[in-house]
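Exam revision sheet. Question 4 asks you to relate a sequence to its structure. Input first:
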Amino acid sequence: MRTVDIDEAKTHLSRLIEQAAAGEPFVIAEAGRLLVKVVPIDAPDRGAERRLGFLAGRAEVPDDFDRMGAAPIESMFEHDA
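Answer key, structure tokens:
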């Protein structure tokens, strides 16, 4: 994503807004510190991509998942050194 200094953003704001509206978002920075991100209004919300239960019905978790592999691990601790 392109980073634009605040002075450049002030000078070329109309062009930058047109580019952002066309799908080219940018970040405005001042003295190297990122301030804001300009994205089109209809850009997908990244937080919306994360949702609980997105694997519901696609994966199975065995009832004993918390004990899987326990035997080899226990044998490592039970071995006399």
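Marking note for examiners. The radius of gyration is 25 Å.
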